[in-house]
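Internal ticket #5521
Category: modeling
Description: The requester needs a full-assembly model to guide mutagenesis choices. All entity lines are attached below as received. Residue total reported by intake: 934.
Assigned to: D.W.
Attached entities:
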Amino acid sequence: MAPKKREDLKQEDVLQAVVIADSFNVRFCPITEKKPRVLLPVANIPMLDYTLEFLSSSGVQEIFVFCSHLSDQIRTHIRNSKWNESSSSCVVTPVLSEGCRSMGDALREIDAKSLIRSDFVLIYGDTLANIKLQNIVEEHKKRREKDKNSLMTMVFKKAPPGHHTRCKEEEVVMAVENTTNRVVHYRKIGNQKRLEFPVEVLLDHQDVDIRYDLLDCQISICSPQVPQIFTDDFDYQTRDDFVKGILINEEIMGNTIYVNVVKNEYAARISNLQMYDAISKDIISRWVFPLTPDSNINNRENSLSCGRHNVYLSKDVTLARGCILEENVIVGGGSSIGSNTVISQSVIGNNCKIGENVKIMGSYIWNDAVIEDNTVITKAILCDSVHLYKGTTVQPGSVLSWNVKVGPDITLPECVKLTSEPIDDGFGDDLPEADQVTETSPDFGSRGKAYIFKAASDSDDEEELELVHDMWGLNIQSEDEDDISSIASNETDDLSDGSLPPDDYRMFYSEVIDTLRRAREENISTDNMILEVNSLK
Amino acid sequence: MEFQPVIMAAGRGSRMTDLTAKCPKALLPIGNMPMIWYPVNMLEKAGFEEAIIVVLESCQAEIQKALVEICQVKMRLDFVGISEDNLGTADSLRNLKDKIKTDILVVSCDLVTDVSLHQLANVHRKYDSSLTLLLSPLPSQYVDIPTPGVKSRKRPEKDFVGFDDKGDRVLFMASEADLEDTFTMRKSVLKKHPFINIKSGLTDCHLYVMKKWIIDYLADSQDKTSVKGELVPYLIKKQFAKPKKPEKELLTTNVSIISEEVKPDIFSFSSEDEIITQIREMSTWIDHKGDMKECYHGDRIRCYAYVQNNGFCVRANTISAYNESNKQVGSECLVAEGVTIGEKVSIKRSIIGKHCSIGDKCKIANSLIMDYVTVSESCNIQGSIICANSHIGENVS
């Protein structure tokens, strides 16, 4: 917080980092209406703390936290954290910008304020990693000495398809030059079944790897030119835009992008609820060491202790007789658990009250929740101060936002998102793509206080919404089967693959059959028929 | 006997017609030995005792004589003559169907290499592969050397070969000419093999180890004529196709089925021994990491390749390659018997055939001179091939 004094240290090559503390999307709605995503607890610690801890432990000395949505909460959080103490090893500066809509905007802002002096680390505020960044930065700098135009090193983690921290939304396929790790082609996969690559990829490079086994950690080491390029080109909104743009203009500008693949270390980004689930489990099972629940990274008074089967308990937890904590469980400080309650694969926050005969499986319950007797919760997220009355059942895939009250004796449908107050407009400015339509419905029990949260379907981005609904709990499984069937039907066209895709054939035939049938019913003349069939081609 | 070697020597040398007008391609001399001697010798060294040689009917006797009498090959050679009009390599294999009892090793007569065949066979055995290829890095000097005879030849076309992460299995093969602007990959293939390494500096040496069922398949489907051009790409592509499920349920009754021609699928040929399948299921060995799928993901056709990293390998199928192979074989100069060389002649990196006479003060460099050539005085011959029975006048350069 004292840039003047730091000025002298500049010569010593201070490593800087820019943390984008906003996701610019609505994956975590409705939870993110009240709290920015980076402050949501993962294993009872806000995500941002993990990111900052990771950065400072890898030698970053100056961090700019860029926040837009609910930025004052982030600022307060940083002010009250250990980073603001004099013993802190790095300086964390919040940068506020309300109008900022994308990562591109953020970098433009940074360029305008000219905060960056040398190579810096660009990272999202919801990233968890234990990578040794020093080596990667070193490598990047060496490469820069040789080639001034190497703009960026993207960090990827090796994760074969089927790896549980692979995010279905962000699957990436790249062509990388084998010897130099230079990126020659980069694309997102989305729902395509066939991927086309330009031939130049092969013609211009002797030895190219096509890589689909990488997980994008969204960590990148950028050269100081990067913010300038963002300023110059207003089209660049995200890093993907940037990478694509750079690769397309490669011949003109001569700029290059490299990758660094980490194998044994951990890195992942909590970009949606599925990832939240996967990464929480990884933290509990200590894959992200030294970032574990008991490592006490944000200096809280009530630290956790780790027991067998990865059961983490705070000191002042009250456990009634006969309650069973199976495995991979965290129970935060001040919580109490009633007798005959079974909890497994779950995180319980601070000051929760859990009654008797409760079953909690694979769920995340944040602070101050009250769960009364005989409730069952599977695979759900319950935010702060949720109250479940007696005999309530929460089925997989549900999200209960702040202060929701449900029950008694109610079974919620699967994959339901509840908020505690009907939301009109007024929130929509910030996140325009999802209008919130809420309606009171009676089926949340006599004492219930909940409204179904729906993202409106008139959004222009259909696919994205689809994903939001599928996101939590239900895996996206359908694509695999389609794939096989398309291959089987492809059998007929042997080597000459260039003809119509099989779906078109099928469409055509069914269309023709329909037409013929109609012709027979309505006695259409043959000439007209021929004309009609020809027009279908 | 594990493999039956088949040497394909029925090529006409269409890429070097200047040289093959008089002499069959298989008998063109490389380092004063007929070309076909090299693959035969390779097989002999590897311990094969017999081989099938596919030749054109018209030159069968000539080749037989050359191999047995002149080169004194001790292997049992079984010559199969094919008629002139039936030239495709796959067609030749089809004709051999009755002779083939085991897996086969197909080798082209123009391959000059010192690769040890057991390494290729090991790859074949290790993965129980359907088709194993020998690939070799394209020597770089080979692209630039001027071609004797014809000027401004096109660069040899690049083949792109995609390997899996271990570098053995061939997942993708395409040549530069076949690709237009883009090349496609199926997502399902990427799922199985998330790491594909595509190399472009490799040439196919036309040395294949094939399972016997491939020949059966060839015999059945008449449309494939060339091994390299059609069969190999087809097999590589079919690796990822799923066998068709037998369509038992008939379509709705109001659609009349005229006659459904049952075309035997390639997968019906590739059926495996039950025991082998069982062994694989019980074994813990697996060829991939990252998921819990069965070994090879249940692919029935699998193509692998052995990449020769050091050593020497040339296919003498074009004039430049032919010239190069000659130079590689005779590392310096090679002068055969019965040659008379005049005074003050300098010969560098050249091969001179039998009974040549070379006049005084000639300079010969980087050239190949075949048998019975007369070179008169003060000639300067550089980087050329001079065919048999030629006469070169004085002071020619």
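Resolution: model delivered.
Comment from assignee: The interface with chain B takes residues 160-163, 173, 178, 189, 192-199, 202-203, 205-213, 480, 483-484, 487-488, 490-491, 494-495 of chain A (CB under 8 Å).
Ticket closed.
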